[in-house]
């Protein structure tokens, strides 16, 4: 009702100054808010304030720009690739060992000849061999001469120079190894007849000795030596090999007939050589083609 009274007063008075003043209610006419209204009004204002803060915050935070370039992918480690290397040239095959340097078996026992005699020494029993083997072939291909200062040993290299000392009387002698043996019991060296005489071993037959290697026998053993490269039952085959050896730089090659148990054999031999070292040198050359070649003394 109060609003209508004020409005009627305004209309009746017209647009003058006093009428306007009457539109403003007096201070004592404003009704104060109740506590419930104050709580509700405060809550509304608080919600409005929170909403404005959220809107301002959202507007202030720019949206993240999409990445223009994709992040690089991490590469997996690649296995190292080695460049192909040229294959090394194959090493030349070593020449086969001469027959006297290869393992051999006697009476069920296998022996392995030493590659070198350096530092070799041993003690044991010495024996000797004489007339029953005189003029027969030794393991080195030489013909055994019981009057030479030579010896047989099971593993020392051929042409090794050794000193043999009789431990009972102190006598010693220097010998050349050119054969294999002995193959009985605890014997370590077989002496030639001449060597046994020098050491006073002829009468007892055996004696305790010390054997020491002194290196390779110096110089060449004089004589007539050949290198045997083949043996055939057909003469024509032997003749062809003789011609082949002559064409390959061995003009002294020859063919020798031998009869063994009623069977004819034709042996092909290269030579002649006036000392053993030369014959051994040629044998080592030929052993590449014919592993079974060996030196003989004529």
From TrEMBL:
GO terms for molecular function: lytic endotransglycosylase activity; peptidoglycan binding. It comes from Desulfonatronum thiosulfatophilum. Residues 85-101 have a biased composition (Pro residues). NCBIfam families: rlpA. Residues 219-298 form the SPOR domain. It is an enzyme of class 4 (lyase). InterPro entries: RlpA, RlpA-like_DPBB, RlpA-like_sf, RplA, SPOR-like_dom, SPOR-like_sf. Belongs to the RlpA family. Residues 62-105 are annotated as: Disordered. Keywords: Cell wall biogenesis/degradation, Lipoprotein, Lyase, Membrane, Signal, Transmembrane, Transmembrane helix. This is Probable endolytic peptidoglycan transglycosylase RlpA. Its EC number is 4.2.2.-. The gene is rlpA. One of its GO terms (biological process) is cell wall organization. Lytic transglycosylase with a strong preference for naked glycan strands that lack stem peptides. Residues 66-78 have a biased composition (Basic and acidic residues). The chain crosses the membrane at residues 39-57.
